Task: structure prediction
Amino acid sequence: GEFGYRHRREWVVAGPAVNMAARLMSTADPNQVVLDPQAWEAIKEDFYAAALPPVPLKGIARPVPRFFVEK
Result:
């Protein structure tokens, strides 16, 4: 949501999806885009991707399947 002074506004995004994205991003190699299954489903008609091994992430009970977008 929006917060801050009248002349300077900032936006904050929070929640489980943002936490998952940040944790998946930390598993990516340089210049690599890593997706969870839900994100992959949303773009799979337009991009190629390959599966990566599932990875344990903080705060998530089971290892998370992940994909990386191929160039």
Summary: The chain is about 25% helix and 30% strand. The beta strands are 2-5, 8-11, 34-35, 49-55, 64-69.
